Amino acid sequence: MAYDIIAKARELAAQGEAAPKVFVDELDVAIEHNAVPKLQRIEGELLKTANEKLLLFAPHEFVAFTRLQEDRNLCAHPAFVLEDELYKPTPDLVRTHIAQALQYLLTHAPLQGKSAVGRFEADILSASFPVDGPDINAFIRSRYLDRAKEVLVTNLIKWLIKSTFGNDRARFQAKEKQIAQTLKEIASVKTAIYDSVVPPFVATWFDAVDDAVLLGLCTLVDSDTRIWSWLSEPVRLRMRRLLATVDVGALTAFSAFDALSSPELSVDLLARFDALDRTAQISIAAENPRPELVSRAIDLYGSSGGWRSAESNGLILVVNYVRFFTSDDIRKILEAAASNDQIWAASGTSGILDRLFDLTLPMISQTHAHWQAFVSARITASRDASEHYAYPSLQQRLAAHGN
After folding, report:
1. All residues at 6 or more sequence positions from 106 whose CB lies less than 8 Å from its CB, including other chains
2. Which of 16, 202, 264, 302 has minimal Cβ neighbours within 10 Å of its Cβ?
């Protein structure tokens, strides 16, 4: 253990950590000058140094190693006790000490408690921190989680939850979704620790969070919908009141509609969405493409009141939602386009529907009839199959992927 602690201190010092560097420099000077009394003092205080200065241990780990050190001293100095009082540890106790040495120290990378959290914070704030879930997962596993002790994982989880609600939350502006996704990835890798830490933590910590930032919970709830059920009842009541009363700017700023993934909050959020004016609805639907808003996005597109707005809505409410569409959604979109001359007569609609066709090609066997009905109606109305508003490029696509 002594060798491992010193090896970890040297690695941390090489990474630029201040406290480990001071310790390593002192040790090297003592070794160079063969200062035996000083080396004995360093050895005698090694466990305390590892705990207080190197920050390698959690409180319960330090207690376990203190017991190990006491037992070691009794075994190492039998001449200093009466023969009848010779200490003989049981095999079970020896096995416990070995297991704890492995679990708490020997198998882990040299990551300090506070220092590791600081490094984690710097990573998240960096421009190079990953955005997508799989990339975040790979990054944090390699850099932190694969050999992390339970106490470090616990500290990272709590830091992630608190980061966007504290006094320095401005530093994490525009990082909220990355932070929530990182929390989600930790939950997938360290599930047992996450499930033991998060419920009791969020049940009490958010009681003290101010109304001005409480809606930030919506993004966390989207990362794990169970968080809503773990919150205290007063916090849930406050959240519902805020969602019903804050202005559109606040809803947008806090990405409140992220919480549509929560069955308990979706009713509140959809009711609030329906009460907004059309401009606000389009803005929110455009900024938050979600399966829960598909039917409303299609309705907004179908009621477009001008050619240019139809083209704009086609891009943000149709193309941006394509990954959520079912074959019946395609039918509704085409029926809306066919019945609204502000849509079908917009010059850009042909290109939008071409993109929709291409992006939903995997379901062509289910949607071919809907596309054919739209094209046939346009050919009949135009009386010239080659005319722009007969959608000739769409005709070609249908012919290439006929039944």
Report:
1. 1, 4
2. 16
Run of H or E residues at 385: none
Residue 254: pLDDT band (50, 70, 90) is very high
Q: How does pLDDT run across 77-125, given as a tens digit for each residue?
A: 565 555 555 667 778 887 887 887 776 666 656 555 456 788 899 999 9
Are the C-beta atoms of 337 and 374 separated by less than 8 Å? yes
Please give the structure tokens belonging to residue 401: 């992927």
d(CA 314, CA 155): 45
Look at the block and give the residue holding tokens 């704030």.
125
Which residue ranges make up each domain of the chain?
Answer: 2-106, 112-208, 295-403
Instruction: Decide: helix, strand or coil at residue 396.
Output: helix
Q: Which residue has the tokens 């609600």?
A: 165
pLDDT of residue 354: 97
DSSP 8-state symbol, 276: S
The pLDDT of residue 140? 95
Cβ(136)–Cβ(179) under 8 Å? no
Q: Is 200 exposed, middle or buried (0-12, 13-18, 19+ CB in 10 A)?
A: exposed
- Return the structure tokens found at 32: 């160079």
Rounded to whole angstroms, the Cα distance separating 88 from 190 reads 38
Q: Quote the CA–CA distance of 117 and 273 in Å, as a whole number.
A: 38
- Tokens coding 93: 């106790």
Position 70 confidence tier, pLDDT thresholds 50, 70, 90:
confident
Tell me the three state secondary structure of residue 277. coil
Of 188, 34, 47, the closest CA to residue 105 belongs to 47
- The candidate with the shortest Cα–Cα distance to 130, out of 79, 181, 87, 174, is 181
